[in-house]
């Protein structure tokens, strides 16, 4: 694959970690998933698998709830995904997360980030300039919500605010209603 292809589409998937528990005396970084989160994460994973939303690379926050979310999502996917821990997406701004994304190698055309609010919601709104689901996204980016944004870009370093198309925004609640 060439390092640069002007006609390439980059697919960015932003997944907010699933619902977490708040055990007393547990530091924020170490909070586990709640039972509701343990049910929601595989639902999102199954949706991703059914719709061909398989990342070439997953960057996962080092927080326990994000790691547990990824493990449950990955268990529903049909193939193994290259995954890396991403310290740089925990408790940082949307522009800081964008900096992490811009550093991803061009060979990864489809990228998944598993992170936290407010960063995930702010980043999705920063990047998506169009898309039918934008009003719902502006309203709320709930736990285990998945935003899929596509860019016409040859490399991740070329993506710019407002230039993405929000092609999907799904939540566990939406998927439960469809069953």
Automatic annotation (TrEMBL):
Signal sequence residues: none
What is one Pfam family matched by this protein? His_Phos_1
Entry's InterPro entries?
His_Pase_superF_clade-1, His_PPase_superfam
Tell me the domain of life. Bacteria
Protein name listed in UniProt: Phosphoglycerate mutase
Organism name: Sinorhizobium glycinis
């Amino acid at each position: 694959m060439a390092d640069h292809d002007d006609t390439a589409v980059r697919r960015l998937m932003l997944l907010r970690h699933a619902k977490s528990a708040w055990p007393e005396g547990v530091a924020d970084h170490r909070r586990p998933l709640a039972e509701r989160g343990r049910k929601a994460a595989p639902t999102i994973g199954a949706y991703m698998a059914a719709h061909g939303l398989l990342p070439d690379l997953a960057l996962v926050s080092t927080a326990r709830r994000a790691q547990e979310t990824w493990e449950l999502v990955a268990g529903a996917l049909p193939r193994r995904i290259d995954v890396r821990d991403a310290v740089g997406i925990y408790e940082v701004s949307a522009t800081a997360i964008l900096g992490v994304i811009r550093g991803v190698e061009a060979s990864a055309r489809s990228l998944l980030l598993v992170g936290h609010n407010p960063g995930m919601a702010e980043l999705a709104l920063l990047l998506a300039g169009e898309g039918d689901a934008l009003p719902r996204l502006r309203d709320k980016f709930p736990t285990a919500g998945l935003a899929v944004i596509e860019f016409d870009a040859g490399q991740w370093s070329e993506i710019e605010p407002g230039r993405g198309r929000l092609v999907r925004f799904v939540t566990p609640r939406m998927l439960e209603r469809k069953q």
